[in-house]
Amino acid sequence: MFHIESDSTQPKAEFYQSLAEQLRALLAGERDLICNAAQFSAFIMQTLPQLNWAGFYFARGEELILGPYVGKVACTRIPFSRGVCGKAARTGLTQRVDDVHAVPDHIACDAASNAELVVPVITAKRVVAVFDIDSPSKHRFDQEDQHGIEQLVSIWQEATDFSWQI
């Protein structure tokens, strides 16, 4: 069994560096997309405080389809044209939202969510997925969190085989 250590009271740079090292060890030797996406979602949910959802949506045409996640039942399909996840998929840029209720086309899959961070996964010059984390706390994610999560998504992406998904 893999043991995860998480001390969110340490400085954020050190916290995310520790998570990066643990994530590399967790994913070592496994390349399967679904397995790694499930492990990564659980890892993030277990290590980051103040989250109520963490998971993936995979691109299929011009919409996102629900993938492995940890949290309450979620939206199954999100068009690229709507919401925070759709904007990340459409633009290929990370979306950090302090208050999702201020976003006119926000898709409320869980009414308890107040802040959101969505990182696009780009392979072969196109968005193949987005990694989405939600928090019940407004202003939960800052620039350091964004940078840390982007690095963790990059580690996950490097450890994962996308050949059948592209």
TrEMBL record:
Pfam families assigned: GAF_2
GO CC annotation: cytosol
GO MF entry, a single one: L-methionine-(R)-S-oxide reductase activity
Domain GAF, residue spans: 42-154
InterPro entries in the record: GAF (IPR003018), GAF-like_dom_sf (IPR029016), Phosphatase_reg/MetRdx (IPR051330)
Family: Belongs to the free Met sulfoxide reductase family.
Name of the protein this chain belongs to: GAF domain-containing protein
Lineage, broadest ranks: Bacteria, Pseudomonadati, Pseudomonadota, Gammaproteobacteria, Oceanospirillales
